[in-house]
Specification:
It contains ten helices and ten strands. By secondary structure, the chain is α/β, with parallel strands linked by helices. Strands 4, 5, 6, 7, 8, 9 and 10 form a seven-stranded mixed beta sheet that branches. A three-stranded parallel beta sheet has the order 1-2-3, sandwiched between helices. Helix 9 runs antiparallel to helix 10.
Amino acid sequence: MVIPVVNRPEYFPECLASVLSQWTGAEEMEIIVLDNGSNPPQWQIPDDLGRGIIRYYRLPETIPLQQNWNTAVSLCRGKWIHLLHNDDYVLPGFYEQFKTSLENCPDSVGAAFTGYENLNEERQVIFSQQYNLKNHRGIVADWILRIGVACPLSPPSLVIRRAAYEKLGGYKLDLLYTCDWEFYKRVATFYDWWYQPGILAHYREQANSITREENLTGASGYDHLRAIEISASYLPGKYCAEITAKSRTHHFCGV
């Protein structure tokens, strides 16, 4: 797993602690920190908490989110990759439950996800997502019909097979707000998705986040439109028109 870091050191120890408490040894799990030009550098937190377990890398200057994620993925050596931002964290059992389910899953599974909750800056739960899948454990049939229309996922709540990155490429550099959604659609077009029931991750909403900034400037609308246009070139033929139309309606009221 890899933790992209850029500033916000106040949340970083909790993130790292949530991962370190579930570490099962170097043969099964790697922990990487990629510091995206934080000022000051954040090497001391992983050095103090990790005690030699964590591999720390630092970029000399801050690069765009998409490029940073691609760099983070390129540093990983494991079969499954988990991108966990330093202000989010996982709950007990996250890695153990995914390991148990995925170590013998079919090669057709390219990604796996679980339920999550969004927290505000006062640590209050303001949103909960379990996708109406209840206690289902396993491959989600026709996941592309849902993820193709809109993105219900949150980055800390999912893992992606390394082979999927290698086959499909990484996050598109010309998309910011929707680079993750577009990539998830690509994965769902060519691979199955596995669901692990329960709430196993927390995403922290920030007042100064990229998401809020993009919404205020209107850039998120353009990125949604671009993501819809891009995926129309590869979505399954029998579903492409339906998914594209529903996605336009969902995001732009039919525009």
